[in-house]
Amino acid sequence: MSTSDRATTKPRNTTISSASARSKAADTSRRRFLGTGAAVLTTATLGAGGWLGAASRAAAQAAPSAPKARVVVVGGGYGGAIAAKYLKLADPDIRVTLIERSPYYVSCPLSNEVISGERDIDSLTFDYRGLTRRGVAVMQDEIVAVDPEAHYVRGAGGARYNYDKLILAPGVSFDYDPIDGMSEAVAESTIPHAWKAGAQTLLLRRQLQAMPDGGVVAIVAPPNPFRCPPGPYERAAQMALYFKHHKPKAKILILDAKDAFSKQALFQAGWQEHYGDMIEWVPGAAGGIIEAVDPKTRTLTGLVEDFQADVVNLIPHQRAAKLAVDAGLTDAAGWCPVDQQTFASEQAPDIHVIGDAAIAGAMPKSGYAANSQGKVCAAAVAAAINGEPPPAPSYVNTCYSILAHDHGISVAGVYELKDGNIVSVPGAGGLSPVDADARTRAMEVEYAIGWFRNITADMFT
Question: What is the pTM of this model?
Answer without folding.
Answer: 0.86
